[in-house]
Amino acid sequence: QVQLVESGGGLVQAGGSLRLACAASTRAFSRYSMGWSRQAPGKEREFVASITWYGDGTFYADSVKGRFTISRDNGKNTIYLQMNNLKPEDTAVYYCATSGKAYSDYSGDYWGQGTQVTVSS
Q1: What does pLDDT average to in each consecutive run of 10 residues of the chain (121 residues)?
Q2: Considering Cα of 9, then 15, then 16, then 20, what sign does the dihedral take?
Q3: Rounded to whole angstroms, how far apart are CA atoms 96 and 112?
Q4: Among 6, 9, 30, 115, which is most exposed with the fewest C-beta within 10 angstroms?
């Protein structure tokens, strides 16, 4: 079992920035690819970004490319999502996820409880 806890959400004006964090309760964290997804009201959950277990590979949805940056700190069992130039359409609950499988591609098998991000216009 992998437990994930997100933090850092909040209310921000358009053009502002937020940094989300996701702490994982597993000693195998450094072997797991990790990622972020989001779900806006009335919409399906969508992929936002992921990072490989070795940290050199990052992937982004087209809608956030150039504005969001995913990173990881294996010493703290934590991944981050730096969100800049936020837009009202970024408003959603943001979830952290992992496959929980060592040395594998990212997939959402374990999820955190989510953190709300609201961007006002």
Answers
A1: 95 98 93 96 96 91 98 95 98 95 88 97 93
A2: positive
A3: 5
A4: 30
